[in-house]
Amino acid sequence: MTPIPKLASLVAITLAAALAVSSCGGGGGGGNGGGSPTEPRPAQVIVVQVKDNSYEPKSITIEPGDTVRWVVSGTDRTHTVTAVNGAFDSGAVFTASGATFERRFDTAGTWDYSCKAHKQCCLMQGSVRVGSGAPPPSPGYE
Ligand SMILES: [Cu+2]
Fold first, then answer.
1. Which of 72, 86, 109, 116 gives 20 to 30 Å between its CA and that of 80?
2. Cα of 55 from ligand 1 centre, angstroms
């Protein structure tokens, strides 16, 4: 009749509980979403900076369905994004830093574009290639 057996059983119970807790945990975490390899990647938004007399990057390659967002960076001079073939024209929206113009490109191909105000003087030109088989931009736009 000593208290020792009681103490021993209490320790045993405590140990058992601790083991039960620690043996939980782990597991789970499996599966990373993934998706099938044939699933198309989600459409993306690609940013091109509009600076004084240049676009950065000057030429980009995207996938059909992607959107290009031109953003004025560090200038308050007026620029445009104007397609050579007339497919799109931002107009004079780039009048302040942070101003944007967006266009989604759904069909494969190559679009050369320039700034109406600074094409002649400064060769402010760029291009968007849509799809891996898009032809190279015209000289001066690549
Ligand atoms: Cu310009």
1. 109
2. 9
Give residues whose Cβ lies within 5 Å of ion ligand 1.
79, 115, 117-118, 124
pLDDT computed for residue 41 by the predictor: 86
CA of 117 to the centre of ligand 1 (A): 5
Does 69 score more than 60 pLDDT? yes
| pLDDT tens figures, 1-24 | 445 555 444 444 444 444 444 444
Alpha-carbon Rg for the chain in angstroms: 30
81 touches 102 (CB < 8 A): no
